[in-house]
Each structure stands twice: as structure tokens, then as C-alpha cells.
């Protein structure tokens, strides 16, 4: 039980208690109002439709588009992230830029890029590539920094930096980078699906239309097709097939409406659209201009940024605590010691389905059933993230060495397994914290009163300058939580525990 006691400046028990207290306070402030007149009847209709998938209505071209967007978006993002990862640790400017890129959700990027490129393939690709470049730069840099340096010490004197990296360091990190890139591709498929909710012709576009119109059989067909894509990813994304996928993807992208003059649109976007309206025609040296700017910004701050930030933090805290409880319940389903050789594959399949379902889509479905409140968003975030953390914790549980006289059942869980995994459990939760906050902000696009709600309203009113200010506020909140999470991991001395899928465990080399 020592793992649950004090360890370093901050103890696991104290950290857990503070987070539980914060979640309880957030729970009091959260809105759990169920607006649907008969949610159980709606749920029965939904399940009845999902039980009879209408595969005849499946638009196969949307599946192709989903894969193509993911291949190109993740490929460009991972490539840029790899090139950036080499100088990442030595450049504070680069680290800040990458942090800014990854702190903005793909949907926010898509809404901004649509102002320049229109509803085009370029918008979809860049909406994935930009944040993924920031994510991959950070993760790849950590992989490179943690690599074994013994090969460098045997290089002949005078070996150049590029040659040293290519021959001594790259072979050490190539497998981890490849592994993480394949996992990021799975995330890219989920992101591409969600981009359909803003109009891009991916599977998400047809899913949103089917759910909105109550065609649940059609929605079931698209969901099952998407799960099949995720579940068979290792079969069709391999070294031999990657050149074919990358080479073919540009030629199967959808032909959708784009901006007729991208250069002029980009220039107008940077010099006029995103510039706060009081600064567009005012003299920068005139105090009256800055007075007008403050008069413009103050209602945004008090009426949108402050309440939106509070609601986003409340949502994220309750969702994080719910994720913790869900993961503690779910991870034994994937551990061999608890479920045996027959139950483990079923448990793993269940959690693969859960973690493969994007939070945005799950929240959208729950919103149709329960009405607009925080409840659909919290449930969606908790279900998805509990599936991820539970899946990873189950893999770690399979790697534990138990003594011959170890107990079984609940005693094995409470006294042998959980205490030994608790540090890793906290590491995963703190890592997911910033991700939950980032996803919680974007759920405002479907009606939850987080920062994304105000961003969506500003874009709908063509007040892009206001939307940019709100997105910057979201970025700052996300970066602050990321910094706090990193500080807590250091204080708990769990910063060196793996929190990525880039390090395969001995029991499972998959993603």
C-alpha cells in the first residue's frame, strides 16, 4: 500500500483528495438538467435503429474520403512534427509555437481555415495537420531525448550532426516514432469523422444527417463501418501499403467548394478579418483607438470569456473525475488475471469500441436523447477517456508479476493490483486532463455553454475577430492546465512514467 501513501513533496492520496474535492465543487455548479420529455423512449428508438443497420445506405465514397483526409493530415502533421522535434528541446520559441498549435482543437482550426480556403479539402487536411504537428513535435522530441546514447559515443571524430542523428539515434527511435504515428493515425480517423459535422464530406457528415433526421439504421451502418476501419487498421496500414495510401489519397479527395482566390483571401484574413474591429480604421497612436478597443473587449471578457472559461473548467473537472471512476471499473475487463483467456478479448473489444468513438459524436447523440445541458458532454468525455485509460491500465496490469500466493477477485484488485498501478493511473489522468479540457471547449459547438459555444456564435454572426479572441482564450486556458498537469506530475514524481502509446509494453506491441 506504500504507493498510495506519501511520495515526494505531494502524495498520491493528497492529490486524489484535492481532485475529488474539486470535482465535488464542480458537480454542485454543473447543469445536469434533462430537457427531453421521455429520454427512455428516445433511447429505445435509437437502440432499435442501431440494432438494424442499413448497409445499403452506406456511402462508400465518404469512407474513402475519411481515410484520405486522415492519411494526408496525419502524414503532413507527423512529418512536420518530426522535423521540428530535432531542435524542439533547444528552442523555447519552437516549444511555445507547438504548444499553441496543439492547444487549438481541429474543429476550431477548421472553422478558421474555412474563412480562407472555404469548404475545401485543404481546410480538412490543414485542420488535422496543424495541431498534430504540435503534438508530434512534443512526443517525438521526448522519444529522441530518452533514446540510448551509447551509439553516439562510438562514432568517429568529426561526424556531422545530421550523420550522427541518421546513423546513431534514428535507428534507436524509429520503432517508437512509427508506433506513435500509427496511433496518431487512428486519432486522425476520429478527427476526420468529426470534421464532417462542419460540412466536409466525410463519414461524419452522413452520420450527423442520419442522427438529426432519426435514420438510426443508416447511422448504425456508418458507425459499424467506422469501427471496422479502426479495428482493422493494423491490416491495411502497414509498411507495404503506406506508399500506396499516401500516393493515392490526393487523387480521391472530395471536390467541394473552395475559395476562388486563396492568396487574396489569406491576405484579407490576416490584415482585416482577424484584426479587432476598433483597430481596423483607427490610428494606433491615438488613445481614442485604444479606448474603443477596451470598450469592444470588455463585454467579450465579462460576458463570454469569463463565464465560458468557468463552464469549461467545471465540465472538465467533473468529466475527469468520472473518467477516473470509469477507468477503475473498466481496466480489469482487459487484464488476463481478472477475465481469463476468454473474457479478455471481449473486454478489449469493448474498450476499443468505446475509445474509438469520438467524444463530439457521442455527445451529439446523447444531446438528442437528453437535451442541452452538461450531462451529455460529461458522459461523452467520461466514456471515451475511461475507455482509453482503462485499456492502457489493463495492458499495464498484464505486465505485473504476481506472487504465487496472490489472492483473487476483489482482494487481488484492491490489495495487489491497484496499489502497484496507482502512480501510472494518476499519470494517465493528469495527461488526459488537458485533452479533456480541450475537447470540453469544443463541445460548445453543439450547445453546451463552454467557450466553444461563444466561438460558434461569433462565427455564425461573421464576427471572426471576436471568435479569434475566444479561441486565444481557449488556448491560454489549455496551456495553463497543461503546465499545471506537468507540475503535478513532477511533484508526484510520475513525470517519467509512460503516458503515450509510443512505448509498446512487453505484453502488447499494438497501439
From TrEMBL:
Record membrane topology: Multi-pass membrane protein
UniProt subcellular location: Cell membrane
Protein name: Phosphate-import permease protein PhnE
Keywords: Cell membrane, Membrane, Transmembrane, Transmembrane helix, Transport
Taxonomic source organism: Methylobacterium jeotgali
Broad class of the protein's primary localization: membrane
Membrane-spanning residues: 12-35, 55-86, 107-130, 188-207, 219-236, 314-334, 435-454, 466-484
Taxonomic superkingdom: Bacteria
